[in-house]
Amino acid sequence: MLEDLRALVLFAKTVETGSFRKAAEAFGLSPSVVSHHIAQLEQRRGTALLYRSPRKLALTASGRRVFGEASALARSAESIARLFAEDAKEVAGEISVSFPAALLRGPLMRRITAFAHDHPDVSITLIATDRRTDIVGQGVDMALRVGTMPDSALKAVSVGQVERTLVCAPALLHRYGRPAEPSELAAWPWIRLAMLPPARDLIGPHGERARIQFTSRIQVDSVDAMYQLTRAGLGISSPPDYLVAEDLVTGDLVPLLPQWSVTAMPVYAVWPPNTPPRSVTRRLVDYLREPIESD
Q1: What pLDDT shows up at residue 84?
Q2: Are residues 99 and 269 in contact, defined by beta-carbon separation less than 8 angstroms?
Q3: At 240, is the secondary structure helix, strand, or coil?
Q4: pLDDT grade, residue 267 (50/70/90)?
Q5: Domain 93-161+267-289: CATH superfamily, name plus number
Q6: Helices first, then strands: H and E counts in the chain
Q7: How many Å apart are CA 191 and CA 217, to the nearest integer?
Q8: According to the model, what pLDDT value does residue 295 have?
Q9: Within the chain, which residue ranges are assigned CATH 3.40.190.10?
Q10: Does this model's pTM top 0.85?
Q11: pLDDT at 3
């Protein structure tokens, strides 16, 4: 909701001034930041507000309907919008962030991208690796970690979770037949992710729980490798929902026990305990904790 209000103010100012550049100057932002917020608003609401060309901007039919209300909002909230702009200008510096490569396609990466757009004076180094980073020893400012958090001197806070789907290739389903109960899957071939135990916890349609213990002849240290080998028909796995969504539509992968759900994996942001409260690291942590709007 807050993102929509800010974007509507920027939209109204863009229409009033006739360009992203002039709207940006009014709030002390860059034209790319203004354009990005309006584009994100259009994407979230599923409608175009502006026609863009190299020489001019023009309102769409939806844009004309929205502009009147947005203009009134801009007049009443312009001082607040300037406060947001000043806050964005204050955030400057460098930050390095380590995270599992599997998060690249997920909603947290979209949040990091939005942070980069909102804070153009921040230089960001992203380290996508499926190996756990020693953030103190390697001099990394912050890490995103998936799964349970062991006791540690590091600061940690939950920033979301990864929903997973139990899937296999159609050929494998044809070979073994459709399972009726979770226990049947213990005898199926699995693609094991090295950093996880050889087990999956499922929740049934009535809240009942089942644990599948399995053995596997194929083990990988990458979620993407697990996903690719599953598509190739070598075994079952439970990749993130966003990784397999298109495959489930095309039929390249099929769900197993769709009435059961795989327990979600929590995601934490971790950082050294001596990090200053107003540092870029803490600003990014707070940004990641904001509610993530669905596309």
Answers
A1: 56
A2: no
A3: strand
A4: very high
A5: Periplasmic binding protein-like II (3.40.190.10)
A6: 9, 13
A7: 8
A8: 42
A9: 93-161+267-289
A10: no
A11: 75
Q: Does domain 167-259 have CATH number 3.40.190.290?
A: yes
Residue 164 pLDDT > 90, yes or no? yes
CA-CA distance, 62 to 266, in Å (whole number)?
39
pLDDT score of 116 more than 80:
yes
Nearest to 99 by CA among 64, 74, 69, 130: 130
CATH of 2-90, one of 2.40.10.10, 1.20.1070.10, 1.20.1250.10, 1.10.10.10: 1.10.10.10
Q: Which residue has the tokens 């990466």?
A: 109
The CATH 1.10.10.10 domain(s) of the chain lie at 2-90
Can you name the residues that pair with 128 across neighbouring β-strands?
A: 99
pLDDT for 294: 44
104, 48 Cβ separation under 8 angstroms: no
72, 116 contact by CB (below 8 A)? no
Quote the Cα angle for 221-222-227, to 5°. 125
Q: How far is CA 215 from CA 34, 61, 190, 257, 282, in A?
A: 52, 59, 7, 19, 41
Instruction: Name the nearest CA neighbour of 148 among 202, 210, 197, 98.
Output: 197
Q: How far apart are CA 3 and CA 293, in angstroms?
A: 10
216-241 tens-digit pLDDT: 999 999 999 999 999 999 999 999 99
| DSSP three-state, residue 236 | strand
Span 48-76, pLDDT tens digits? 888 887 777 888 888 788 777 777 777 77
Share of the chain above pLDDT 90, in %: 52
Q: How far apart are the first and last CA of the chain?
A: 14
Which part of the chain has CATH 3.40.190.290? 167-259
pLDDT of 1 reads: 65
Q: Mean pLDDT, the chain, as a whole number?
A: 87
